[in-house]
Amino acid sequence: YGALQGRHKAEVEQEVGSELVHLWRRACDCPPPPLQPGDERLPQYDARYDAIPRHLLPTTESLMDTHSRVRSCWEEELRPRLYAAGSLLVVAHGNSLRALVMHLRGLTSAGVEQLEIPTCQPLRFVFDDDMKLLS
Q: Which of 32, 34, 40, 58 yields a CA-CA distance of 20 to 30 A from 64?
């Protein structure tokens, strides 16, 4: 979430207005402001990302950026595991889940802007033997 990371939504809305916050949180191609050099929230300061080259670590992401990452994860990791095991539990941040649902349901940019992912409520997806979404 770039410069919005770790901040309360209401606080940011007071600073810039609810319309802009809504745009940053829901629009596909409108990333929040990037984290600035030296910001302790930058992924380069997080040990979990030590193995990733610094130039690949984003300072902000739009939903489409997130979608690109999640689509790769789906194709390379999740889908093969689901196919092999028959079931799979995915737990992730809301925007990552929105991107995954966008991909699985084939939603357009306009469609995903209306998508609400409930917190702590499971979503169940059923696939056929060819990994096509049934429901």
A: 40
Q: Are 24 and 31 in contact (CB under 8 A)?
A: yes
The two three-digit tokens of residue 35, written as one number: 């984290």
- Give the Cα separation of 49 and 43 in Å (integer): 7
pLDDT at position 94, please?
A: 86
Which pLDDT does position 39 carry in this prediction?
95
For the packed helices 9-16 and 18-26, what is the interaxial angle rounded to 10 degrees? 120
Instruction: Give the dihedral sign, CA 32/65/69/93.
Output: positive
Q: What are 67's two structure tokens?
A: 């979608």
Q: What is the CA radius of gyration of the chain?
A: 16
79 vs 118, higher pLDDT: 79
pLDDT bucket at 56, cuts 50 / 70 / 90 = very high
User: 102: which residues sit within 8 A by CB, 6+ positions away?
Assistant: 63, 67, 111, 112, 115
